[in-house]
Amino acid sequence: GAQLIITSHSATLMEYLEKEEIYCTEKNRSGETEIYALRDIDDVRRDENYYAKYLSGVYGAIPKIG
After folding, report:
1. Which residues are 27's β-sheet partners?
2. 24 strand-pairing partners
3. pLDDT tens digits, one per residue of 5-15
4. Four-point Cα dihedral 33, 7, 11, 22, nearest 10
5. d(CA 18, CA 8)
6. Which of 29, 34, 56, 66 reaches 20 to 30 Å from 2, CA-CA?
């Protein structure tokens, strides 16, 4: 009955996970961190390339690389 939560800065891991296993974080205007799951975003399909869509900003939590 245990649950393991892992965080990573490697977005490529999204290629191996289901949408129920992916959570994103994003800072709001107040500087507070908000967390949400891909399963809670409308129209996210199981056969999507989560990695590519994440990098293009479709899910929010837009990565700042560099």
Report:
1. 33
2. 36
3. 888 888 899 99
4. -80
5. 16
6. 34
